[in-house]
Amino acid sequence: MTPELDEHGRLDPPLDADEWGTLCGFLDYQRATFAWKCRGLDAAQLARTLPPSPMTLAGMMKHLAYVEDDWFSRDLHDEPLREPWASVDWRARPEWEWETAVVDDPDEVRALWTASVERARELAARAYEEGGLGIAAKRRFPDGRSPSLRWIMTHMIEEYARHNGHADLLRESIDGEVGE
After folding, report:
1. Under CATH, which architecture does the 19-175 domain have?
2. What are the boundaries of each domain within the chain?
3. What is the pTM of this model?
4. Contact 157/24 with Cβ under 8 angstroms?
5. Which of 121, 149, 176, 178 is the most buried (most CB within 10 A)?
6. Which domain of life is it from (predicted)?
7. Rounded-to-integer distance, Cα 10 and Cα 164, Å
8. Per-residue pLDDT tens for 135-158?
9. What is the pLDDT of residues 60-94, one digit of tens each?
10. What single string gives the DSSP state of each residue in the chain?
């Protein structure tokens, strides 16, 4: 039996997979939930805030694109930051991705996020094939510790779940659409 997508384009995480399949399933479910919350919105809607927070769906999308690239490319595989991240002066503008997303073309932000997700899936799978969930990220924390692929996958599920809560509130304030 082929799994079916729900009405929002999401595939439920598997009920009986191994640890890798379960983590991938939950992360992809969270990614699909975020995509649903941003689907069909124009630039003004993606730039709308829900005071007192300055957070926007556009900013969140660009932030998540950065987080995907940072954890899976830079940290896990020690690849250099790619554009648009590489040329940012992060010390001068630590919120750059949030600030710039509201003036960027929405299709470009969506494409950036989609490409980052696709690249992250490939890089996670490559690391898993090389050393399983216990493989350590090549970049170390300042204290010398290095998170495992298992930790990174779990962290990314948490990252999306937290931001999906924000996205729920923003989307409801835009057009009343609600749902888990």
Report:
1. Up-down Bundle (1.20)
2. 19-175
3. 0.95
4. no
5. 149
6. Bacteria
7. 14
8. 999 999 999 999 999 999 999 999
9. 999 999 999 999 999 999 999 999 999 999 999 99
10. ------TTS-PPPPSS--HHHHHHHHHHHHHHHHHHHHTT--HHHHT--BTTB---HHHHHHHHHHHHIIIIIIIHH-PPPPTTTTT--TTT-TTHHHHHHTTS-HHHHHHHHHHHHHHHHHHHHHHHHHH-TTPBPSS--TTS---BHHHHHHHHHHHHHHHHHHHHHHHHHHH-----
Q: Name the one residue in this structure whose structure tokens are 């556009």.
A: 58
The residue type of 40 is G
